[in-house]
Amino acid sequence: MREIVLVRHGETDWNREKRMQGHADISLNERGRAQAAAVAQRFSGQSFDEIWSSDLSRARETAAAIGATVGVTPTLSDCWRELDVGDAEGMIGFTFGGRTRELLKMPQGLAEPVLPGGESLLAFRDRIRRGWAAVQSERALVVSHGGTIKALLVDLLGLDVTRIDSLSMRVNTGVSIVQMHEERPRITLLNCGAHLDAV
Asked: pTM for this one?
C-alpha cells in the first residue's frame, strides 16, 4: 500500500487579506512560519521516501521546514503550483467558486481560462496529473496549495474537475492523506490542523 501525505502551505499576508494568490510568489508571514514549524514537528520521527513541493515560496518554505525535520531534501516542481488566476492575482474578496460555475455555463468552458489571463481547469487538472505521476515511492509527502490539493483529490475520486469546490481546504498547513490500494485511492485524512493547537 502506498501512502501520500498532502500538506497545504503555511499562511501568507495575502491569505490573511483574502487575496487571490495564484502563481504570485508570496512568502510565508510570521504565523505561516510558525505553522510550518508546527507541521514539521508533527512529522518528527516519521520517514518519507521523497518530498515534493510547489516551487512557489510559500510552499517551498513549508516543505523546507518539513524536510529539515525528517531528513529529506524536497524536490521542487511547478506541477504542484496553485491555479494560475491571471488578472485576478491580488484581488480581494473574489468568489472563486461562483465565478467558476458561471464560466462553466459557457460553451467549452473547461478549456477556457477560469479567469482572464489565467489557466483553464483542463490545463490545471492535466498539470496536477503530471505531478502525481511523478510521485512513485511507497511513502511520499507533497506540499502544495489549497486549490491544487482539492483538484487532485476530486480527480483521484473520479469526479469532474468542476467539482473542485466540493471540498474545503481552508486550514493553512492542513494535512490530508491518500492511501493507494492497488491503485484505488482512499482518503483517510482531510485538511487536518490538529498540530496548530498551540500556534
From this structure: 0.92
